[in-house]
Predict the 3D structure of the following.
Amino acid sequence: MKDIIVFGAGGHAKAVIDTIEKAGLYRIVGLLDGYKAAGTNVFAYDVLGSEAWLKTQGKSIHKGIIAVGDNWLRANIAASILSVRSDFTFVSAVHPSSSIARGATIGAGTVVMSGAVINSDTSIGEHCVLYPHTSVDHDSSVGSFVTFAPNAVTGGNVKIGDYAVVSIGAKIIHGRSIGEHTVIGAGSTVLTDIPSYSIAYGSPARTVRSRVAGEKYL
């Protein structure tokens, strides 16, 4: 197994660690988190320091994954890591109980958790998170730094822009588009296209206000 580092040591990181362990492809050598003291222990893995550790002590580690739930923060961490180590590459983590259909593709840094379904000829971008029991149906296109919360589902031929969030239990019917940086509220049913930089919720979902890039949603 190849050695990797995990960036993040919070609750979301625990779910990512479990996915990595279940997949059995990589050995976690430690965690990096600038908000936790070095030596803090999470699931028997030590926090080694912040991203700066990669430059000063972690030169032998060339792969890893970002285990941070917020899309925008995940993107900033990815950029910070590459500014310190341009040779660093990100791995994906796919839980063995998930279902990845023929023709589906998954970008680097993406996490697919237990029971998630990615159907035929669907593309998932980089650094996305598919929480347990999410489903993205056939011929859909998902950008990078996108989050599907538990039980979020789409029909076929759906397009979702970068940094979008599909919250817990939300449903998107076939052929609809969700713009970049848009948040779909929990339990919503999306029947029409939703523009970029929006917050939309309800059944049917309607845009209730605009949002800016990086605005907190967790």
Summary: Residues 2-90 form a domain with the Rossmann fold fold (CATH 3.40.50.20). The radius of gyration is 17 Å.
